[in-house]
Structure formats: C-alpha cells, structure tokens
Amino acid sequence: MLAAYASTLDAADPLSGLTLGERPEPAVPDGWTTVTVRATALNHHDLWSLRGVGLDASRLPMILGCDAAGVTDDGAEVLVHAVVSDPDWRDDETLDPKRSLLSERFQGTFAARVAVPRRNLVPKPAALSFEEAACLPTAWLTAYRMLFTQAQVVPGQTVLVQGAGGGVSTALVALGAAAGARVWVTSRDPGRAARVRSLGADEVFASGARLPARVDAVMETVGAATWQHSLRSLRPGGTLVVSGATSGYEAPTELNRLFFLQLRVLGSTMGTRDELARLVAFCERTGLRPVIDRVLPLTEAEDGFAALDRGEVFGKVVFTP
Ligand SMILES: NC(=O)c1ccc[n+]([C@@H]2O[C@H](COP(=O)([O-])OP(=O)(O)OC[C@H]3O[C@@H](n4cnc5c(N)ncnc54)[C@H](OP(=O)(O)O)[C@@H]3O)[C@@H](O)[C@H]2O)c1
Fold first, then answer.
1. What is the Å distance from ligand 1's center to 45 Cα?
2. What domains can be seen in the chain, in order of their start residue?
3. Distance, CA 244 to ligand 1 centroid (Å)?
4. Which residues contact 32 (CB under 8 A, 6 or more apart)?
5. Res 191: pLDDT
6. Could you read off the pLDDT of 67-111 as tens digits, one per residue?
7. pTM of the full predicted structure?
8. How far apart are the CA of 72 and the centre of ligand 1, in A?
9. CA 243 to centroid of ligand 1, rounded, Å
10. pLDDT for position 190
11. Which of 93, 140, 221 maximizes ligand 1 atoms within 8 Å of its Cβ, making it the mutation to test the pocket?
12. Cis omega (within 30 of 0) for bond into 61
C-alpha cells in the first residue's frame, strides 16, 4: 500500500528522510482492527519524528502520522484515538508509562490502511467530513484537554494563547471562544490578526507585547521564545498549561514569581479516548469545525511538510490517501 514514511532521521534536515512509496499491509494483533484511511492530518510531531525526537533509528522504516478518520472493515465511519496504552491499562491513557503514539512504536496513519486497537475507535458523526474529523485526534484533542481538563476554563475568563497559526493554537482559540472565554492571542506575524479574530479571538498582540491586563490562564506550545511572557502575563493564582516547546526547552523558571503569585504550571499531553469522544460531540453540537489550511493528496505530502517546517501554515494540513 502507498504510505509516507521516515526512512532516515536527520535533526538538521528532517525532510531528507521523508519517503513516499509502497509499504506492507499492516499486521493486526489480537484486539486490533484495520481502518481504511480516508483522511489524515499532519502535526508538528511528524517533523519531530523525522528529526529523531521520539523516534529511534532502530524502528525505521516507520509510517508517519498520528491522526486518521476512515472506515472499518465492517463499514463503520470512525476517528482513531492515537494514544496506544498497554492492553491491561484501565486508567487515563495519557498517564500510562508504557503508552506510545501511532508512528512511534506502531506504524502510523499516512497510509491507505492503519492497524489500531479496537478500543481506540471513536464513531464519526455524519455531520463531520473525514477531513474535519482527521484534525481532531492530536492537535484539537491536545487543545481540548489543555483548556477544559487542565486549566478548567469557564465562560468569562480571559485566556492567552501563545502563537496564532499553529494546529494546536488555532484549536485553542476556536474552542476557547466557543466555550465563552475571552481569548487573547500573540503572533510573530501581524498579518495573521484578521484570521485569528475570525476564529473568535478578542485581541491579537505581537509576540512578547505587554498585555492590557493579567489573564486567568495561558496556553503554551511555543516554549522558550514565549515562556517568560507567559509567566508574566498571569494574574495571581493563574494557570499556565504547557504541551509543547517548538522554539526550545530552556527558559528561566522565575521561581519567585511561581510561589509569590501562587501560579499553577501544568503539563499536558494529548488526551484520553473519552475526551476525544467529548470533543467530537462538542463539534457536532456547536457546529465548530477545525481550521484547515489545505487538503493535499498523500502523494504531495512533502509539500505539506515543507510548508509546516517553514511556519507558513494556518490551521491544519490534511492528506487524503
Ligand atoms: N504534548 C502533546 O501532546 C502535543 C500535542 C500536539 C502538539 N504538541 C507540540 O506543540 C507544538 C505545536 O504543535 P502544532 O502542531 O500546533 O505546531 P505548528 O502547527 O507548527 O505550530 C507552531 C506555532 O508556534 C508558534 N511559533 C513557533 N515558533 C515561534 C517563535 N519562535 N516565537 C513565537 N511563536 C512561535 C507559531 O505562531 P505564529 O502563528 O505566530 O507563527 C504557531 O502558532 C509542537 O512543538 C508540538 O510538538 C504537543
């Protein structure tokens, strides 16, 4: 079957290891099933994998991709939850020390078919297209858990989202606004302000700009470039949720600020299958839909990777096998 996979890893030139070609049909262990992929979405995670972050050379060749929406062998339309936990694990899947994401230990979704545990399937409502559904399992699920499970944002609160055009940041803006929060956004690119406002943002600021007031919660995926601004933007008792660090891991912790203002700093990773089902219901019932920058045939995957790597994407890049 046709697939986009990592054949080599290179921290400096990740795209050099991206290969489009034939891979064997997926093996299906006990308790697993096959999904014929109708749409799959690109994440920054796929670039990290090609850089060798989270993916070891001993596992190559590895089909990339965490996200899929498609059809099971018995004709059910489904989304795939990308977090694979141990078969005996019964708690929150993201807390299983043995968990992995599709494309880390098990072959990923940038292919005609993918094998997944049956318990990872979530029914796809007819109201969502396959392309829209494919955006939910990673970026949108991560945003959902950051806002509602970790920060416990409620209507009327002010939330700062660092970064404008990212897959996670566009989801944070749209979900936060739909839930009744006042959403402020920072961006390196002032040209993105109008698009961010159309998603529901109330104000858009230049990265690092002084805000008119302190916020209740900050959603952080940028990392080193925005970390201090995130800490300094919080009101006493406010919450910083971090799920990524695209610009680097090292930043001053400012311990004095943490204890004196009683700030809460919470890490967050992906989400549970139940949270994905709730996110799907949220989209179905509110009419909210993922922001899609472009839909490409899987044969043009390299163009999508290159655009993401250059920071040119606003929302999600979707591939159709
Ligand atoms: N822990 C998890 O489960 C999880 C899940 C999903 C993603 N992540 C991580 O979260 C990060 C974002 O993922 P994504 O898929 O949303 O990636 P993406 O689509 O590439 O998003 C990049 C975002 O980062 C901002 N940005 C990048 N470099 C910046 C800098 N130097 N200064 C200011 N802003 C900068 C961009 O803002 P502008 O629009 O203003 O350019 C954009 O909003 C990645 O590192 C990813 O690995 C983690």
1. 10
2. 2-135+290-320 (3.90.180.10), 139-267 (3.90.180.10)
3. 7
4. 115, 116, 117, 118
5. 87
6. 999 999 999 999 999 999 999 999 999 999 999 999 999 999 999
7. 0.98
8. 32
9. 9
10. 84
11. 221
12. yes
